[in-house]
Every structure is written in structure tokens, then in C-alpha cells.
Amino acid sequence: MDSGVSQRLRVFGLAAAHLKHEWVLTLCLVSALAAVLAPLLILMGLKEGTIETLRDRLVQDPVYREIRPAITRTFDKEWMEQLQSDERVAFLTTTILPASSMIHLVANGTDAELIDLVPTADDDPLLLENDGAIPQEGECVLSNEAARRLGVKVNESIVARVTRSRGGRYETVEQDLRVKAVLSSRAGSLARVYTPLEFVVDVESYKEGRGVAARGWAGQSSQPYMSFDGVLVLSQSMLDPVLRTGLVVNTGLLKADPMDSEAFASLTGLSLPDGWYPYNLSIPAGSVNYSSIEALKRKLRGREALLIPYVNDLILQLPEKELAIVGLSINTDWAEKLAWPALPWGQLSATALESTRLMQILLPGDDVSVGTSLMATFYGASPVTFPLKVVGAPSQVKRALVPIELIGMLRTARDRAVVYQAETDDLVLQRAGFRGFRLYARNIDDVPSLVAQLRGQGLEVVAAVDAIERIQVLDRGLTQLFWLIAVLGVVGASAVLIASLYAAVERERKDLGVLRLIGLARKDVFLFPVFQGALIAMLGVALAWGGYSLLSEVINRVFGNELSDGQAICRLPAGYPWLAMLATLTLAIMSSLIAAWKATLIEPAEAIREE
Amino acid sequence: MPLLLLQQVVKSRSHAGSSFQLVVPELSVSPGEFVAVVGESGCGKSTLLDLLALISKPDAADCYRLVFADSEQHDVADLWSRNDEYALASIRRQHLGYVLQTGGLLPYLNVRDNLLLPMRINRLPGGSKRVKEMAERMGVADCLNRLPESLSGGQRQRVAILRALSHSPRLVLADEPTAAVDKRRARLIVQDLRSLARDEGLSIIMVTHDLDLVHEVADRTYGFEVSQVSENETLSICSQEVL
After folding, report:
1. Same structural domain for residues A8 and A145?
2. Total count of domains within chain B
3. Residues of chain A with pLDDT > 90: what percent?
4. Could you say which of B113, B118, B123 has the minimum Cβ distance to residue A518?
5. Domain-embedded: residue A490
6. How many domains does chain A fold into?
7. B240 shares contact with chain A (CB less than 8 Å)
8. Domain range holding A599?
9. Cross-chain residue pair B56–A3, CB shorter than 8 Å
10. Least CB-CB distance to B121: which of A17, A22, A518?
């Protein structure tokens, strides 16, 4: 075994000596190989450098990684958290209703600009990757267009002015914001101001009429607002179609249908005395709010008519059983007129909403212990448990009866989380979840699958899937192009090596014959062209790498002016010289096999014959 | 016991419809002998040389034996019948030396490396010292670092002889080693070969067309008797000439 190795080393020495002796030919061959390899390395360098840099810029532009819902919908916290924990998601922030997100910004006493308010949070790539920084409380980041319109620069202060209309009056609060950064125009062409989510949420609350104690912004408490499925109109005279149509105009209601007393009874649990005509006013698949009822009330002024808002199928869970409840708030005059039980809470009111009035219930049946409290749970958007005081059990009552205002609030609790605060003995409306989100995938390649997943959940989203696919197609195309050129280069290099090594064997038939004559075996002679191919490959790669290094340096100096640190137009990763060496060696050895096979056919007799 | 013994060895070759057959009834070389093989061109010299150089397979052989020592005997006819190329190459490498017409030196190695090559291939130690001594003796010591192409014909041939001897073979085959030099130099070369062989105790077979050159130094001489058997058949019988 050892002798074989040393014999091979001997052959290697001879092959090297031969190349050295014919150094001009060797130089030509090495140059030819380098001439094929160097442009290939430059091309690879350009692909790795320029194209990758450009691709990174384009591909990693947050705009292409953004996903947002196409529709406004309420997203609950758990769903958001689950989405945020998906490993494909780099960043997720909730957003608010578009209508609530427009605020006035004032800089240096100039006119106010109406600008879109967008929440942000730590790690927001849209900000961080566009020369921005994450704003903290009291700070904001402006988009390029917003900064232009306002004429402000970084570190200057602006005033955010939030306006709402409440009870027919305009109210305004202001907050100073320091401009922490101005984004590059790549982040988008719209005028936008980015602030922490907390500020955005406070702005939304204020706009919706609620107060924000922490900022000293006044407003109403956060009791749930009332909503209903419809409203019944009881009239002692028939309402003709024209009048009925008049009732729905400008009230927000859509339909006004007559109904019979049976339908009335099944809806309210109360029997209707003769001589009263019920009508059902509603918004199909929509909710009726209190302002519609007030508008309706104004239209019916002067007419002997009673408004009874209703909500279908409200069930409370008591410790032992379920309890279907209906709501009714009328004064004693009406109760007498209709022979209905007198209600301790009186008539419908939008202002008398203290819990001592609302949390009352009349129960049907005989074994009712008046004066006790029931703990009732309502399963809406989230379960809410609150006490109800049993205030009576009148005989007319077939179903449990509570103030309609409570029913209206519970209906709201179907869609929005409501909690019962024992300290204030009040029902409190939780934040309405969030109405949208802004999501950035970790990588553009993750966007299509995320979009597919969200669409699979029935959520239509907006994402630059088409653009991503275009980029991916471009990327694939470029890669294919480079491989095509690489294949051409490989074919060229192989041709050069095969031809040269073959010609070399032909040239040295006699010398190889002498080697066979003095005792080298066929397998030793076989190695002669193989070693020569390998040597030429190594020299060729070394020369090509030298040429590449020189040329890439020139390219980077001449064309690389506008690149940032760490970027280069032409650059190959660190392992590439070895990869190129390995690939070329393999190629050279493959190419030498024909010549090697030819060498084994040389007979020692050829050395003796003098042709 | 002779170093080399051939009995009834036959080799035929045909070319362009005509065939040539060489028959060697008996050829033997003893250790230390200088044997000349003399003949005009076309008589079968080359065919015989290929047989002796172990690079051509005999068609038939009653006996073809190489005896280097009691313990090292080779039945060449048997090795050929088994086509044991490796064993044949190994004998060539260790025990045979070749002096070719124009030297057969490798043009890309200098004289020293050419001389060292057979020793290195055989992994023999002390090459450099031996090369130097031999080169001094043959008067080519100042050529050691030169390439063969820069040598004169006579120098080249002497280097070739040295290379054939450098690994101490038992049998040296010289194929017209003086073809490229003038008569005076040729005689000197033959003298050198003769004395080296004697000193080293090896046998030499020199093939030449020039009987004058060898008849004084050769221990024995073989010649060829060529006869035209038919229009396309030539027969050559190689046998010892009695001078």
C-alpha cells in the first residue's frame, strides 16, 4: 500500500516536472482556464453582491411583507395573540377604526393638517427599516409626506388636536408630541403619524365620547351603550302605509311592519288589550340604537303611541337554571292603560342609568322571595356576572321582566366585552377588541402561506402577494440565468481541459512509453494526465481568483459609491475559493479521464521504435 | 546457469498482407557476458528486442527463463501466458536496463533526475552519491544539472547508458546505442558499456547493424538467417554466429 502511494507521488512529481518544463503551454492552459473561470466568478460575485443587495432591499422592504385585513372587523385579543405567536410573523400591531384615526396636527402655528394616526410598537419594521425609531409616550414618528406638509424636522414639537362632537357641541383636546423621526419615502407616500398604541386608543376613546382620566380628557363613563333588535310601536289608531314609511325616514330604521297580537305576545310575553295596533320597526340584520328611538319618538309626538324597544331571545344563566328575560320600561299611566304590571323602574330613559334602577327584575311565579338578589351571568362576547334585585312577582308577568335599558346594554354585550365592576356597582364596556391589524411577515416567502391561512379563516386580507410572486419569479429567473452561464462556462472549461490534456498525452506518447518500459504500471501512467489536470485546475483557480479579486475591487470602488457599509456590488462569500477549487478540481479530473484512458493504451514498445 | 535462456521461441507479425516469422532456436546469456545481436534492418532485430525487453508476447516458447538468483527465477513464457503485466513490469523495473537509440531520456527532467528516476521508482537508497560517482566515471559530471536537449549526442548517449545502469539491473538491453554518434565516439561508448558491465557484473545484449563495432568486445554474437518462404512469407532464424 505504502509503495503504491510513493509511486503515485513519483508520478505526481513527474507530471509536475513535465508541466514546468513545458511552462509556456502550461501557462496558456492555465490562462485559458482562468479566462473561463474569472468571468464566472465575477458573475457569481455580481449575483451575490449587487443582485442580492438589490433583492434584499426590494425583498426585505417591509411594504412587501405587510398584511392587513381588507375589511373592518373586530378581532379579539386571543386571536391576535395567537397570530402574533406564529413564527412566520415578525411584527403585529392592532389598529383602530379608520374613522377614529384621523387627527389634526399643528406645527409652529401653521394651519392644522388632517393626518392619519397609525399605532406602532417595539420592533415595527416599517419604522425601523426606513430610518425611523420607535416612538415612546409623548413622541411620534412622521411619514415623509406628513413631515413635508407640516414643515417639521426631527426633534421639533407638534400638537396633536383631537376633536369630537358631543351633544351638538365640538370639543377638543390637545397633546404635545415630539417628532422622534421622519421616515424615508420608501415607507409610503401617504401622510401618516405613528404613535404608541396607547395614545391611539385614547384618541379613539375620546372620539367615541369617553373620557381619558390619565390625560385629563373629559367624557362620559364607559357604560355599555344600548342597542336593540327593533322597536315596537303601539298605537290606538291604524297607521297607514304612508305614515309608516314616514316613520322609518331619517330614523335609521328600515322596515315598519304591522303585526298581530300573537306575535306581539310571543315577543314580549305580555298580552295586548283590544284596540291597540302593534307595529314592528327594525333594521334587518342590523342593530337599532338609542338615537333611532329618540328620532322615532319625535316623529310620533302628539300621537297616542307607545314605543317598546325589544331584543330577541335574551337568556340569563342563574345558578340553578336558565332564565329567558324580556325588557320593558313604561310609566304607571301606560301600565294602567294596557293593564300591565306597574314597573318600579318607570319609563324608558337614556340618562337614568344608575345601577340601582337598572339591576332589578320582576319574576313570574308564586314562590319568589322578593328583596333578594340573584347572581345572573350573561354569555355574550365574554361572560359577565352581575346581581339582580328581585323587586316583585306580579301576576300578569309570564316571563321575567327587567328594564329595557339593561336589555339594551346586554345586547351590546353580545358583541362587545362587558364586565361588572363590583366597586362601582356598574356595567363597564371593555375596549371593542380591535378593528384591524398591521402585520409584517418575517420573510416575504412567508407571506403567501400566511395570506392563505388568513383567507382560510374567512378573513380577506390585503398583501403584496402578486409583487412577491413577481420578485420570486425574477429571483428564480436570475438564478437560472446564472446557472445557464455557469453551465456554459463548465462546458467551455471542460472542452479546454479535455482537448489540452488529450493533446498532451499524444505529444508525450514516447516519454510515457519510456516510463512504461522502465517499469511503471498502466495505472501509474493513468494518473499522469489526472495529476496534470488537477495541477492546471489549481493554478487556474488561483489565477482566476487573483483576477476576480482585482476586478471586483475595481468594480466596488468605481460603482460602489452609494452603497452603505457592508454592502458590495461584487462579492463572494468566504467559502467560495474552496468551493471554486473543489468544483474545478472535480471538473479537471473528470476531463482528464479520456486522456488518462488514452495514456494506458500506450505500449512500452513505442519507446523503443524510432519512427 | 545462464541468466537468460530462450529455446524454440517463435514470434510472428503480419503487415499489409505479408507475414514475418522470427524463430529463436536457442539464445542464452550468462552473467557478466556481453552479447551482440547483429543484423541488417528488416531481419527481425526489433522483434527480438521486444521479446527480450518483455514488452512483446511470444507466440510460442519451449523455454523463456530469467534467472537472477537461485531464489529468484522467472518463467517469462508462463507470465505471458497468464498476461501478468504487473509481474513483467516489475521485472522490467528491477532487473532490466534499457539504452535506446536516441537515449530515451525524459526531456523535462535534468540529467540528475533522469539518472535518479530508475532508482527512485525502485526505491533504492543512496541515489545521489551513486549518480555522482557514475557520472564522474563517464565524464558527464558537469552535465548533471542540464536538460537532455542541451547535451551533445555523445553525452546524451552516455547519460542514457548511465540511466540504464543506475538501478543496478542484471541485464541491460542496448538498441543501436551508437546510431546517433560518429564511429570514433561509437567505439568509446561500446568500450564504456563493456567495462561498466564487467565492473558491475551484469550482462549486456547490444543490438546493432555494425559487426565491426562489436566483434572485438562481444563474448558471443548472434545473427539472423533470413529466407523467403513464399511470396508473402518471410522466415528469420536467429542463431549464434561462429566467428
Report:
1. no
2. 1
3. 29
4. B118
5. yes
6. 3
7. no
8. 2-60+468-608
9. no
10. A518
- Is a pLDDT exceeding 80 seen at residue A167? no
Q: With left for phi above 0 and alpha for psi between -120 and 50, is residue A23 left, alpha or beta?
A: alpha
* Residue B100 to residue A608, Cβ atoms within 8 A: yes
pLDDT digits (tens, 9 = 90+) for B76-122: 999 999 989 889 989 999 999 999 887 789 999 999 999 999 998 88
- Residue A190 — φ and ψ, nearest 5°? -85, 155
Q: Is residue A243 part of a domain?
A: no
* Within a domain: A228: no
Does some domain include residue A90?
Answer: yes
Q: Do A605 and B56 touch (CB under 8 A)?
A: yes
- β-pair partners for A115: A103
Displacement of CA A24 from its chain's centroid (Å) = 64
Single pTM value for the model: 0.59
Strands (E), B113-232: 171-175, 203-208, 220-228
Please give the C-alpha separations between residue A588 and each of A493, A499, A535, A540, A585, in angstroms, as whole numbers: 8, 11, 9, 10, 5
**In this structure, are residues A178 and A140 in contact, taking their beta carbons and an 8 Å threshold?**
yes
> Going along A111-183, which residue ranges are E strands?
113-120, 139-142, 157-166, 169-182
Contact assignment for B100 to A514 by CB distance below 8 Å: yes
pLDDT at A403 over 60: yes
Q: Touching check for B55 and chain A: CB below 8 Å?
A: yes
Query: Could you tell me how many residues make up chain B?
Result: 243
Quick one: angle between helices A23-46 and A465-507, nearest 10?
180
A212 with A72, same domain? yes
| Closest chain A C-alpha to B136 CA, distance in angstroms | 24
Q: What is the DSSP string of A163-218?
A: EEEETTEEEEEEEEEEEEEE--GGG-SS-EEEEEHHHHHHHHHHHTTB-BGGGTB-
Interface test with B, best of A9, A21, A518 (most B CBs within 10 A): A518
Residue with cell 545521489: B128
User: Is B46 within 8 Å of A609 when comparing Cβ atoms?
Assistant: yes
| Residue of chain B minimizing CA distance to A518 | B93
Q: Which residues is A170 bridged to in the sheet?
A: A165
Residue B26 belongs to what domain range?
4-241
CA closest to B89 among chain A residues = A519
Which residue is associated with the grid cell 391561512?
A453
Contacts of A511 in chain B (CB under 8 A): 106-108
Quote the minimal CA–CA distance from A587 to chain B in Å. Answer: 26
B53 → closest Cβ in A20, A510, A517: A517
Listed ranges A8-12, A177-181, A242-246, A558-562; the one with the highest mean pLDDT = A177-181
A75 and A10 belong to one structural domain: no
CB contact under 8 A, A517 and B92: yes
Give how far B28 is from chain A: nearest CA, Å: 22
Chain A positions touching chain B (beta carbons under 8 Å):
3, 6-7, 10, 14, 17-18, 20-22, 510-511, 514-522, 603-605, 607-610
| Spatial contact of A26 and A19, defined as CB atoms under 8 Å apart | yes
Other CB atoms within 10 A of residue A168 CB: 5
- Chain B environment of A517 (Cβ under 8 Å): 53, 55, 92, 98, 104
Residue A4's closest chain B neighbor by CA?
Answer: B121
Closest CA to A61 of A182, A183, A187, A193: A187
* Pair (A184, A319) in one structural domain: no
Question: Does B102 lie at the interface with A, CB-CB under 8 angstroms?
Answer: yes
* A608 vs B50, B109, B118: nearest CB: B50
Residue A227 is placed in which grid cell? 342597542
Identify whether the C-beta of residue A231 lies closer than 8 Å to the C-beta of residue A419.
no
Q: What is the DSSP letter of A47?
A: I
Q: How far apart are the first and last CA of chain B?
A: 24
B85 touches chain A (CB under 8 A): yes
Radius of gyration in angstroms for the set of CA atoms belonging to chain A, rounded to a whole number = 42
